[in-house]
């Protein structure tokens, strides 16, 4: 068998074409047919998949044969985006596939656009997880992603009468050629039930066993994650829930047919839908079920793999030497009591040993300090769903509070503040405290954010566990965010540097001396123009709007949230509109033409965010239909922002806005993507903006607004001493309130919220500085050769924001893990 299967697929053009035709005939079962692009996409995907699978199974076999340390990235979200472009480029087969398709009368780009992207994440946190998987494979780290295979991903956003309407995203309609269903890899997951106590026959100690309740089956779906320029291909394992057979029998025998069917449906519903909120904790029991379901299956899988390798003298005590588990926010933090339960109740380890293993295995990444986003679970809910875990959490807390008492004797205030249990009615489990106590490293995602985690979120913990909180600034993968998204610019880099820059972004720095070179500038500007035209074409085809391409492209694309201040952007646009409307045709002819792009989804229940979208659409309509704005200003709200649209939008930008109220955006990762693609930032001193400014030069980031420390002070003084309003802001508010953009009642709440007494996000406070920053950017842009030089130098200074740097830092500071490159057999 081995000899028969040990030959590898050939990937020259004729071989690829044969494989395409075979898949059309035998996989899609279509013959003598003129097939549409959708079917041809399917055939191409299967052909590419075959080539991934060889490398994937080889890599996994190789990892199994070595005794390296492995890392598991646990995340409720992976925002993978489309796979085909990534796969052909990471395999080094883009040229071959393009040619094979061309000869058959198809265009690779066009075929790739047929792919429906899996949207198994909300935004930054989920996309970060996917960038990390790309880098982990590229750098040959033996690492897997674990998550949930939601049937319905992030909702599809449509604009109906200028308002967001959500539609379900059933992304599996035409199947998913990138995954392999592993019907043989399945685990039982228990929910509800009760805890039985019994006496250990040998030691006489009291032991616990969790029994009864409902048992659900977790089935594995694996997706290969190819590295760029390496043979290593990692795995992303997503779990899907199915009813279990045991469970069937019990219910059906009880004679309640309908009840039994209903219960089966409930099992499948666990992995039905992604929660579409990235800013508030819903506290819903189904969400807790999702978390526990995927954590339980994952830990069983991880322990099974660890135990399969038999090494003399090795026990579970050695687990942290061979396994690192990273928790992507608190969402998978039920892992901590679950691993404790497995070690205590199944493996019969004493508490201290189990706790030592657990804390040395886990690392926890914090992505927010916003109180409303911090996960808490009601104790009564947890007691019912996970009774044994609740006992264990109480025990963890009890022992932890003893340590607090030792450190600060008699300080009840410290105990109350640090306790894992919040003494409210009902009592709540604070998952961030649990994750903090149960991990050996806790990291923030940008320098300022880590500083705030230490000073505001966990000050007492930072004293108690000095050095446990570390910073690892986020990064994004240059494979997707430069090479794939911006072929025009990537082509320039490759023509000068060869392809090596893609996994060594430092090399771009050697181009900085050419920033003023005429030919270099010319091709750089050509690339930007091409990217604007590419976007304009899409906007025309999908929205019917003719965008100017000779304009400055000013963009803000990200989830819609009050703290991200899309409202500040819209108010700035209204101000610009007022200025245009009040000027003479001669004055207008001298203005810098501008295209403003806004895109992003609001959580379905977040009314204020939805109103902001409505206002943006209303302003867009008024501006685009006003002849006075023709050739001067256009505004578009692009619907259904997702990874594929980001790849189209970002490379077309000249300036992008990252204007959160300082201290509120943990890092941001869009900011990095824009600068890498030859755009500059208008932004606040928040998140990774601060580090980006340091890397590209402070004068290349148009910074404004209160700093994080000032924000805190301002919020306290504002209510007593109201600042004088800015005349320009007041005029914009008056326009909105007077109905220039439709029924003012729709926007009265938004306008009330920015009255000085209510202005929690400091929109009014930062407005003048914001306009100044935009003016600075415009002035800089008008000086074209120097603008081009700035964008070149900035883009070529971004190496530290490659997720390659980020992952090396995690490997070093958190995982203590080495690469394990696999040398191909041919
Ligand atoms: C929580 C409870 C119930 C349902 C959903 C959630 C939830 C889901 C996603 C909460 C937060 C979620 O994501 C938060 C997020 O995306 N944070 C962003 O993380 C990025 C990567 O670190 C940072 O760059 C952003 O600044 C940060 O906002």
TrEMBL record:
It comes from the Eukaryota. Its cofactor is pyridoxal 5'-phosphate. It is an enzyme of class 2 (transferase). Keywords: Allosteric enzyme, Carbohydrate metabolism, Glycosyltransferase, Pyridoxal phosphate, Transferase. Its EC number is 2.4.1.1. Gene3D superfamilies: Glycogen Phosphorylase B. One of its GO terms (molecular function) is pyridoxal phosphate binding. InterPro entries: Glycg_phsphrylas, Glyco_trans_35, Pyridoxal_P_attach_site. The modification N6-(pyridoxal phosphate)lysine is found at residue 673. One of its GO terms (biological process) is glycogen catabolic process. Allosteric enzyme that catalyzes the rate-limiting step in glycogen catabolism, the phosphorolytic cleavage of glycogen to produce glucose-1-phosphate, and plays a central role in maintaining cellular and organismal glucose homeostasis. PANTHER family: GLYCOGEN PHOSPHORYLASE, GLYCOGEN PHOSPHORYLASE, LIVER FORM. Belongs to the glycogen phosphorylase family. This is Alpha-1,4 glucan phosphorylase. It comes from Micromonas commoda (strain RCC299 / NOUM17 / CCMP2709). The gene is PHO3.
